[in-house]
Amino acid sequence: MGGGGQQTESSEPAKGDGVGPDGGRGGSAVYTWEEVQKHCHRSDQWLVIDRKVYNITQWAKRHPGGIRVISHFAGEDATEAFVAFHLEPNFVRKFLKPLLIGELAPTEPSQDQGKNAVLVQDFQALRDRVESEGLLRARPLFFSLYLGHILLLEALALGLLWVWGTSWSLTLLCSLMLATSQAQAGWLQHDYGHLSVCKKSGWNHKLHKFVIGHLKGASANWWNHRHFQHHAKPNVFSKDPDINSLHVFVLGDKQPVEYGIKKLKYMPYHHQHQYFFLVGPPLIVPVFFNIQIFRTMFSQRDWVDLAWAMTFYLRFFCCYYPFFGFFGSVALISFVRFLESHWFVWVTQMSHLPMEMDHERHQDWLTMQLSATCNIEQSTFNDWFSGHLNFQIEHHLFPTMPRHNYHLVAPLVRALCEKHGVPYQVKTLQKGMTDVVRSLKKSGDLWLDAYLHK
């Protein structure tokens, strides 16, 4: 019944993947969780979906969502993540068939790592209800109107300059309008990115390329591979790229103490809640993201995304060069990115940065997502300002759900959390933002205490 035999290496999945311990195929072997959990290394990866055991060692490199997001579940039960990420799980299962090497032994529980089976089953029942009520189906009209208001903002910004000419006040107003359209386009591409997963030839996928490439000058593939990791393991160190602060910040309660004990001081972390305003909101989009996006497109030779991004810059300079010249247009787009960056950082971080951060704890989907996310109160402004990401909990539980249905499923999620004693946090917009600074100060103080006294 063992599963520890070395798998044959090959570039062809039919020969290298899904080979059982005896060298045959057919997935007739049975395994224990202990055996599955041994296969969690880069060169040896198994995972479990619906009690079926798959060897993804070679195929992970060709996973459409990227090698990292699927590798995060190596040696684990990936059933809940598999269902959450794929709009049509039955369509995706055909890719799994060649990778099947067996199943869990009948005596093994369906959940690994001592997860609460009742909670997992109740959440699956909720998901079944959500699907049956059509809450995972998008309304094209909603997204068409949303795209229309983004294009209208851009047209108005350019129209003001054509009609009234350039002045400091008009330039500032146009910059604000462009920053607003960029931020809203960011939320829209986020929608299309989630709705186009595993649909590379669908309209959502094409619209995602258009919005993130032509309207924002960024890369769809870069965003997908980065963002799906965040959803797979939110606030888990080494697995969520959104909390990879590159030693600029220490986050949560554990990382600061670990740095302090090791006497690591890349920055004066006890002042990070102050220098955050200088290096966080102002620089994340115009500097860090832009460098990362273009480096990724060139290193991965992603010429399609690069071509889409170039259409954005070509259109932008064609529109604004007559008014500001080359360097003036560069200054304008830099200022717009600067404004957008503040918007982006506060909206994304107020629901995650103050929450629990830890190393891998192998939690069930509901518990993991709720420990890392909180909601911001609903209002017309909050919905628009955050792109409905004020419903961060519902978005993380159902990443393929269109945003216009979050408010419908929220009461059901809250009831399930109350039943199982899982904290469901809702904050005001002001508290969400101030908690970002408070959490940074708390982490900095923890680092200083450990650095000086341990």
TrEMBL record:
The chain crosses the membrane at residues 141-164, 275-293, 313-336. Residues 17-27 have a biased composition (Gly residues). GO terms for molecular function: oxidoreductase activity, acting on paired donors, with oxidation of a pair of donors resulting in the reduction of molecular oxygen to two molecules of water. SMART domains: Cyt-b5. It is found in: Membrane. It is a multi-pass membrane protein. Residues 1-28 are annotated as: Disordered. One of its GO terms (cellular component) is membrane. GO terms for biological process: unsaturated fatty acid biosynthetic process. Keywords: Fatty acid biosynthesis, Fatty acid metabolism, Lipid biosynthesis, Lipid metabolism, Membrane, Oxidoreductase, Transmembrane, Transmembrane helix. The keyword Glycosyltransferase does not apply. It holds the Pfam family FA_desaturase. PROSITE patterns: CYTOCHROME_B5_2 (PS50255). SUPFAM superfamilies: Cytochrome b5-like heme/steroid binding domain (SSF55856). Its main location: membrane. Residues 28-105 form the Cytochrome b5 heme-binding domain. The keyword Lipid metabolism applies. Belongs to the fatty acid desaturase type 1 family. This is Putative delata 6-desaturase. The gene is FD6D.
